[in-house]
Write a structure and sequence with these properties.
Layout: E1 2-4, E2 7-9, E3 12-14, E4 21-25, E5 32-37, H1 41-57, H2 65-81, H3 83-94, H4 98-121, E6 125-128, E7 139-145, E8 148-152, H5 158-171, E9 175-180, H6 185-196, E10 205-209, H7 212-220, E11 226-230, H8 233-246, E12 249-253, E13 259-262, H9 268-278, E14 292-296, H10 300-313, H11 332-348, E15 351-356, E16 370-375, H12 382-385, E17 392-398, H13 401-409, E18 413-414, E19 417-420, H14 424-433, E20 440-441, E21 455-456, E22 459-460, H15 465-470, E23 473-479
Parallel strand pairs: 1-5, 8-9, 8-11, 9-10, 11-12, 13-14, 13-19, 14-17, 16-17, 19-20
Antiparallel strand pairs: 2-3, 4-5, 6-7, 7-23, 12-22, 15-16, 18-21
Helix pairs in contact: 2-4, 3-4, 3-6, 4-5, 9-10
Length: 480
C-alpha cells in the first residue's frame, strides 16, 4: 500500500488542511492500491502564496539560464534512473498497459532534452540591429519569466503532461503550482519526491492532487499569471473564459478526433500495423489517437477486414501482464461512457465489425470495455465527431483524395492525424492540406523539437521545443 498523507507545497511535505485521505482504486479489480491527501482551497492559497513570494524574491528567477538548465538536466537524469518505477505506478493507478508506460519513458527523455537544447540556444537577451542606421536608438529585447504558473494536467498521461509544463516553466525562471488529477496521486507523489531532490528555492514548485472544484479555484486565483492546461475541450473553454476575464496568459492543449488517411497506394498491412499504436495507444485514452480511419472505396473492405483481424488479436486484461495490449478504462464512469458510445454507434446505423458494448468475459471486476471497430460510418455520426476516449475505431469511406481531405477536416478538432502511402512525398503533400496541429506520415513518431498543439477546438498555443519554452516568457524591450 502506497500512502502520501502530506502535500508537497513549495518544496516541502506539509500537513494538508484536511486530513482525510483518498483511496486510489485499481482500474483492474477495484482493490485499493494507495491512499493520498487531496488539496483544498486553503492548500492552494498556501502554495500560490509561496510561489508568489519565491518569484518576487527572485532567487530562482534571477539565476542564470545555464544554471537553471543544469538543475533540470539533473531532474531528467533522476527520472531516467526511476523509469521502471514510474511506469509501474502509472499502470497501477491508470490501468495503462505496461508496454505503453514503459515505451513512454524514452519519450520523456527526448521531450526534456528538446526543451533543454532549446533553452541553451534561446535568445534570452539580444540587441536588435536598428532598421535605420542613422538612428541613435538601439533596442535590447529580453525574454523574462511570466510569473506564477498554474499547470493543470489530466490523468491519462500524467508524467508526460507534467514534464511538458514544469520543465519549460522552471527553465524560464517561473514559479509553478502543478495541479494533478486525484487518480494520479501515486505517480505524481513520486514526481514530487524527485523534485524535492533538486533543492529548488523555497516556494518555486508545488505538486497538488485536487478535484475539479479546487482546480477552478486555482485558475481563478488572483496571484496566478499564466495557466497551462491539458484536458478536455469543455474544460478548456471554461478556463479560457476565466483567463479572458482576468487577462491571464493561457495555453490550452485540448481534445481531438484525429483522422488516419490511408491512400489507395498504401501498404494496408503496414498501415493497419501502424493503427495499432497510433489509434489504440494507452487503451485509446489519448487525445492524439487517430480513431477515424479513412479508407478508399476501392480498398475499403480490405482495410475493414485487416482492422478486424488486428483488433481481435489484441489481448485485453491486467495491465501488469506483459502480453496485455489494452487495459481497463481509468474509472467506472469512463467505462460506461465508452460503452454508451458503442451502443450509440449501433443505434446510429454503423456496421459493428467486431466488439460491442459487452464487458469482456472474466474481466467484470475491472473497468474494461471490448475494443470495437465500426464500418459504414458517415462522418456526420456522433461516433465520428465526438471524442470517445477509448478503444473504438470508425472506418469511413472516401471517393478520392480531395474527399479524404474534406472528411479529415470536417471536425471541430484539429490536434493530430496521419497519412499512409507508398509515396512519401505524395503523403507529405496530402498532410499539408489537413488542418491539424500535428500530423505524421507512415507512422512517424512525434518530434519533440517541433511545436505541438491544436487547431480549432483542440487548443490555443503550443508545447515542446523553443516555441513551447517561449510561452512561459514575456518580451521586454529596453531602448537605449
Amino acid at each position: 500500500m502506497i500512502t502520501y498523507d502530506r502535500l508537497f507545497i513549495g518544496g516541502s511535505w506539509v500537513e494538508p488542511s484536511t486530513p482525510k485521505l483518498l483511496d486510489i482504486a485499481s482500474p483492474h479489480d477495484q482493490s485499493v492500491v494507495g491512499r493520498a491527501a487531496q488539496a483544498q482551497p486553503a492548500d492552494i492559497d498556501r502554495a500560490v502564496a509561496a510561489a508568489r513570494a519565491a518569484f518576487e524574491a527572485g532567487e530562482w528567477r534571477l539565476t542564470p539560464p545555464a544554471e537553471r538548465i543544469a538543475v533540470l538536466r539533473r531532474f531528467n537524469a533522476l527520472r531516467e534512473e526511476n523509469a521502471e518505477k514510474i511506469a509501474h505506478l502509472i499502470s497501477l493507478e491508470n490501468g495503462s498497459a505496461g508496454w505503453f508506460t514503459r515505451a513512454g519513458q524514452p519519450g520523456l527523455t527526448r521531450q526534456a532534452n528538446a526543451y533543454l537544447k532549446a533553452a541553451e540556444e534561446f535568445a534570452w537577451e539580444e540587441t536588435l540591429t536598428p532598421s535605420d542606421p542613422a538612428s541613435p536608438v538601439r533596442s535590447v529585447v529580453r525574454r523574462e519569466a511570466v510569473g506564477v504558473v498554474a499547470a493543470v494536467i489530466p490523468w491519462n498521461s500524467p508524467f508526460s503532461s507534467a514534464t511538458s509544463k514544469i520543465i519549460p516553466a522552471l527553465v524560464a525562471g517561473n514559479s509553478v503550482v502543478l495541479k494533478v488529477s486525484p487518480e494520479n496521486s501515486l505517480s505524481m507523489g513520486f514526481l514530487a519526491e524527485l523534485l524535492e531532490q533538486l533543492d529548488l528555492p523555497e516556494g518555486v514548485i508545488s505538486v497538488l492532487p485536487a478535484d475539479r472544484e479546487t482546480s477552478e479555484y486555482l485558475v481563478k486565483h488572483k496571484e496566478i499569471d499564466k495557466i497551462a492546461f491539458t484536458g478536455s475541450t469543455l474544460a478548456g473553454r471554461r478556463i479560457a473564459s476565466i483567463a479572458g476575464e482576468q487577462l491571464k496568459r493561457v495555453s490550452l492543449e485540448l481534445g481531438g478526433k484525429s483522422a488516419a488517411i490511408i491512400l489507395p497506394d498504401a501498404d494496408i498491412e503496414k498501415a493497419v500495423a501502424g493503427v495499432k499504436f497510433g489509434s489504440l495507444l494507452n487503451n485509446g485514452e489519448s487525445c492524439i489517437a487517430q480513431t477515424r480511419i479513412l479508407a478508399p472505396r476501392t480498398r475499403y473492405e480490405e482495410v475493414v477486414s485487416a482492422l478486424k483481424t488486428l483488433v481481435e488479436s489484441l489481448k485485453v486484461g491486467d495491465p501488469g501482464d506483459p502480453d496485455t495490449f489494452i487495459g481497463p478504462m481509468i474509472r467506472r464512469d469512463q467505462q460506461e461512457r465508452v460503452r454508451n458510445y458503442i451502443q450509440l454507434g449501433i443505434e446510429e446505423g454503423a456496421r459493428l465489425v467486431t466488439g460491442g458494448p459487452q464487458i469482456p468475459e472474466g474481466l467484470e471486476k475491472g473497468n474494461y470495455v471490448t475494443p470495437t471497430v465500426f464500418a459504414d460510418v458517415d462522418n456526420s455520426m456522433r461516433i465520428a465527431q465526438e471524442e470517445i476516449f477509448g478503444p473504438v475505431l470508425v472506418v469511413i469511406a472516401y471517393d478520392d483524395e480531395d474527399d479524404a481531405v474534406r472528411i479529415a477536416n470536417d471536425s471541430e478538432y484539429g490536434l493530430s492525424g496521419g497519412v499512409w502511402s507508398s509515396d512519401e512525398e505524395h503523403a507529405l503533400a496530402v498532410a499539408r492540406r489537413v488542418r491539424t496541429g500535428t500530423i505524421t506520415v507512415n507512422g512517424a513518431s512525434i518530434a519533440f523539437d517541433g511545436p505541438f498543439g491544436g487547431f480549432k477546438a483542440s487548443g490555443i498555443g503550443r508545447e515542446y521545443g523553443a516555441v513551447g519554452l517561449g510561452t512561459y516568457t514575456e518580451y521586454k524591450t529596453i531602448t537605449v
